[in-house]
Design goal:
Number of strands: 36
Radius of gyration: 38 Å
Strand content: 35-45%
Number of helices: 5
Oligomer: single chain
Shape: elongated
Largest sheet: 7 strands, antiparallel
Number of domains: 4
Helix content: under 10%
CATH superfamily of the largest domain: Immunoglobulins
Structural class: mainly beta
CATH topology of the largest domain: Immunoglobulin-like
CATH class of the largest domain: Mainly Beta
């Protein structure tokens, strides 16, 4: 038994249609319509390749037909067809056209070299549907043909445009395109933690036979399980990102898209696709059948799918997916705040999202001070379990709260971005002795474009009604360094972190009239056509510095 080529079987194709025509006597309107439908199905279908996985694209509500022919040669001819939907559920069926014995006519040539087909040989072919299915699962039909037959496969998608893969084979003895699944293809959950889930599954027989070319790949997401690898990849693409054709191909780093992150550790490849603020993780771990998924979010339900992938053919088979919910996050550790003591809190945006501080009031009025150093942080304060303040921090923030003696305040700090964030916190009942300096209305530095020259720049900044010390620093930078310098600036760091050569000057000033509390400074000795980063540090009575927002200015190229 073998797959016949299109042109070789075209005469058989035409003869079967001719037989259908001769077999109908005085057809009625309905039989004429059926006859036309049969001919339409034949002449508007494609041949299906044998021993090769074929990708078929389906348009909504438009059926697509493929056919193949099984010729005589053995008493019983086995074959199998595997259909894999890659998105929405589809409808598909197998129709068989069987010719009667002697078809399509084997009379010997007459004297004129022509052949005649007797009336007994013009009996009609029988048409029957031997299989039909509707859904999105991977389905395999295994059949046995005892004589010559033509098979027609019809596929239909009623939801939307989609694509499927179809694999036909008439060679059921020399191996399988798809890796084999074990008798029990379920994934077992061995353990669940706050941020981890441990999984195990039975080994595929293909691993024992073709270990070097077979490996397991795990897909983790928060939506649902996928019944095939192509269905998972289609879902990722529909979310607005491109992915490599298969997980096997994902092993090539140069195929990664900008939205993908590849992590290689302990011979395991992880590809994290950031889709709509959620992560879809693809992890290939060779032939290990136990894996602990790390870095999950607490109290979150995840879906896990394992695929056995043939690296040589890119064919895959799916285990039965499972799901698990991680444990709720443990109660955060609470650090005690003491009167007047400054605590520096650093939050890792990826690992540690929140931090808790507790303060017990020894006075009715309490003053909280927050100095934002890096990133973005939201503060939430409760008094005896009731919310009294909640806001995003910016620069330096004072909060004065009035309550009762021995009230318990809980300060919760949460990073609102993935990068690291940090803040300094102080609680004190003595507002008249602040640890941080009094701040002006704005911490912006202004530069005057008209006063720029090739060798100098003039800047200005606001002061306060309190006499304070201001120190100016400059740093020469390249244009491609500007964004990084501005984003990574630690607003809590003082001049001690700067090189001595960057210091320009220090000065004291104040003005009781806030409208006149402005000072300017012209920085000379600069290079022409060059970018400079300027910083101003404000020192209060306690000596704790506050850094103004950095300013980048470029000197004139020509004067």
């Amino acid at each position: 038994l073998k797959m016949s080529w299109f042109w070789f079987y075209l005469p058989l194709h035409l003869l079967m249609a001719t037989c259908l025509c001769h077999s109908i006597k005085a057809p009625t309107t309905s039989s004429q319509q059926s006859f036309k439908t049969d001919l339409f199905n034949f002449y508007h279908s494609l041949i299906l390749a044998d021993g090769k996985e074929t990708t078929i694209h389906l348009l909504k509500d438009i059926p697509k037909r493929y056919y193949f022919v099984l010729e005589e040669g053995r008493v019983l001819a086995p074959f199998s067809i595997t259909v894999t939907p890659c998105d929405v559920p589809i409808e598909w069926s197998i129709l068989v056209y069987k010719s009667p014995p002697g078809f399509p006519g084997k009379a010997a040539p007459d004297d004129h070299g022509t052949q005649e087909v007797s009336k007994s040989q013009r009996t009609p072919s029988t048409v029957s549907t031997i299989f039909s299915y509707k859904g999105n699962s991977v389905e395999t039909y295994m059949g046995m043909s005892s004589h010559s037959a033509l098979y027609l496969l019809e596929f239909l998608s009623t939801e939307r445009d989609t694509h499927i893969t179809v694999y036909l084979t008439t060679d059921t003895t020399s191996g399988h395109l798809y890796p084999e699944l074990p008798m029990d293809p379920r994934i077992d959950v061995l353990g669940i933690g706050h941020t981890t889930v441990t999984l195990t599954w039975k080994h595929s027989p293909s691993v024992l036979q073709h270990g070097e070319s077979i490996q397991y790949c795990l897909l983790v997401n928060e939506k649902h399980n996928y019944k095939s690898l192509c269905a998972a990849e289609t879902a990722i693409r529909s979310s607005g990102m491109k992915v490599p054709p298969t997980l096997a191909l994902s092993l090539s780093p140069y195929l990664l898209e900008p939205q993908q992150v590849m992590i290689l550790s302990n011979s395991e490849l992880s590809i994290i696709n950031k889709v709509s603020s959620r992560e879809v993780r693809q992890v290939c771990m060779g032939t290990k059948n136990t894996y602990t998924v790390p870095n999950l979010s607490p109290s979150t339900q995840y879906y896990f799918d394992v695929f056995i992938v043939n690296l040589l053919t890119n064919a895959s088979a799916a285990y039965t997916g499972t799901f698990a919910r991680t444990l709720e996050a443990p109660e955060p550790k609470v650090t005690e705040l003491k009167d007047g003591k400054v605590i520096h809190v650093v939050l890792d945006g990826k690992k540690q999202k929140s931090y808790s501080l507790q303060y017990q009031a020894r006075h009715k009025k309490i003053h909280f001070t927050f100095q934002l150093c890096q990133g973005q942080i939201r503060v939430h304060i409760t008094r005896n379990g009731k919310t009294v303040a909640s806001e995003n921090l910016s620069a330096l923030r004072y909060l004065s709260l009035k309550g009762k003696l021995l009230d318990t305040y809980l300060v919760q700090l949460r990073s609102t971005e993935e990068s690291n964030s940090s803040v300094k916190v102080q609680a004190s009942p003595h507002f008249h002795k602040p640890f941080f300096p009094l701040l002006p209305e704005s911490l912006k530095i202004k530069s005057f474009s008209k006063l720029r020259t090739c060798r100098s720049v003039t800047i200005a900044w606001l002061g306060t009604q309190e006499e304070s010390k201001y120190c100016v620093y400059r740093k020469r930078i390249e244009e491609d360094q500007i964004w990084r310098e501005l984003q990574s600036a630690d607003r809590c760091s003082g001049p001690e972190s700067r090189h001595k050569s960057e210091k320009v000057l220090c000065k004291y000033f104040y003005d009781l009239n806030l409208q006149r509390a402005v000072t300017t400074e012209t920085i000379k000795g600069l290079a022409a056509g060059t970018f400079y980063l300027f910083d101003v540090y404000l020192f209060g009575p306690s000596g704790i510095p506050v850094r103004y927002h950095s300013k980048v200015v470029k000197t004139r190229k020509k004067c």
